[in-house]
Design goal:
The structure is a homodimer of 222-residue chains. Chain A is α+β, with helices and mostly antiparallel strands and 222 residues long. Chain A has 2 domains: 172 residues, Pnp Oxidase, Chain A, CATH 2.30.110.10; 37 residues, no CATH class. Helices cover 24% and strands 34% of the residues of chain A. The first copy, chain A, is built from 7 helices and 12 strands. In chain A, strands 1, 2, 3, 6, 7, 10 and 11 form a 7-stranded antiparallel sheet that branches. A 4-stranded antiparallel sheet of chain A has the order 4-5-9-8. In chain A, strand 2 and strand 3 form a beta hairpin. Chain A is globular, with a radius of gyration of 21 Å. Chain A starts with 16 loop residues before the first strand and ends in an 8-residue tail after the last helix. Chains A and B meet through strand 2, strand 3, strand 6, strand 7 and helix 3 of A and strand 2, strand 3, strand 6, strand 7 and helix 3 of B. Strand 12 of chain A pairs antiparallel with strand 11 of chain B, so a sheet runs across the interface.
Chain lengths: 222, 222
């Protein structure tokens, strides 16, 4: 179970906190991007979007050289959010969102071991498109050295989940008959666009086609 | 034009920085969620997902009471990211993402004026579903007091955009004929689900139907 520390104990809407590591892993694994929070040299917060992959209880983060040097051995916060729906309630006050979010806090470690660095890059590439690592040209030593990877332990993490219909159903019994409900939000991968430097009829590899097909969740509106 | 300060001058991949406020506004306006970065009482970064709306050159952020008290009169960083595609290059090193992201830095102001507070809530509700503010029950004084809103000036902001095919087309001329391309990523709103407390045949209001239809961008995969 996730053991919330005072820092990861959710303070607001505690009923939305989940302590199941399976949920934490699922949120990190489903999200295509993450947001990495740092404190800059002047003490001001900086939040940068980047890409990640989880391997067991570590999350690897693709760092720009700037972010990586800012984050090295510093406290960081990695946040991942999956927006699942817009919750349109009767009262403005009860409006909300359905979502699953993970917040991981801790000291970022710059990955320097060549084997771990390569495995981390593989995890990130495979996270974004399974099967792509073996398809692509592996990084040479110069390319690896130019790609910063940060590692963050999942020891201090929290997950928050809100799902379901609007939270003010009692309004109906009180005579409020205006429409309320949820508008689902999904992320969809579209048909691959072949690089214009290739012949247009270059076949799309099966691992890419499969990944795009598998991404179709929910029912896009008519 | 946006005038990058030393803090918002993009350091990495400068060619991706755009200085057109129209792009900044468009990114903030299209994104359904944002990530707000704070520095907590111990000096550690904290990144929380929340919702926002832009009104002219101010972005209003829906703050939990905890985040709002942490952020009040403090430096914050609001980051919004629209993921547009997975860029599958030939070499792992050239893998990338197509995206549009905005980073806004500055001191957060807690909105206390009742008129501005109400207008900010209206902007946030309308941002997420146009037409919803007039449909819903307006907040009363108690509800307004319980909803924290932060305002952040757009004076110090940067936008980064990467679009287009993989960046290693020269590999083709060098005899590398493996497939490369872009997998588009889109966010799609699904058919509304009526609140189970209502009769199932309660008609979905036209502003919601219109919003869901209008959200269909890109071509979901077959």
């Amino acid at each position: 179970m996730l053991s919330p520390t005072p820092r990861t104990q959710v303070r607001r809407k505690r009923d939305r906190q989940q302590s199941d590591p399976t949920t934490l892993h699922a949120v990190l694994d489903e999200a295509l991007i993450c947001h990495l929070g740092l404190v800059d040299a002047d003490g001001a917060p900086l939040v940068l979007p980047t890409m990640h992959a989880r391997v067991d209880d570590v999350v690897y983060v693709h760092g720009s050289s700037g972010a990586a040097s800012l984050a090295r051995d510093q406290e960081v916060c990695l946040t991942v959010t999956l927006l699942d729906g817009l919750v349109l309630a009767r009262s403005v006050f009860a409006h909300s969102a359905n979502y699953r979010s993970a917040v991981v806090r801790g000291r970022a470690r710059r990955v320097t071991d060549p084997d771990e660095h390569l495995r981390a890059l593989e995890a990130i590439v495979e996270h974004l498109t399974p099967g792509q690592w073996d398809h692509a040209k592996q990084p040479d030593r110069r390319e690896s050295a130019a790609t910063a990877v940060l590692a963050l332990d999942l020891g201090e993490a929290s997950v928050k989940v809100r799902q379901g219909p609007p939270g003010d159903p009692e309004a109906v019994a009180q005579g409020d008959d205006r429409w309320a409900g949820v508008v689902p939000v999904t992320t969809v991968l579209g048909p691959p666009r072949t690089c214009p430097a290739l012949p247009a009829d270059t076949p799309v590899p099966a691992h890419v086609t499969r990944w795009v097909r598998g991404s179709l969740r929910g029912d896009p509106a008519p």
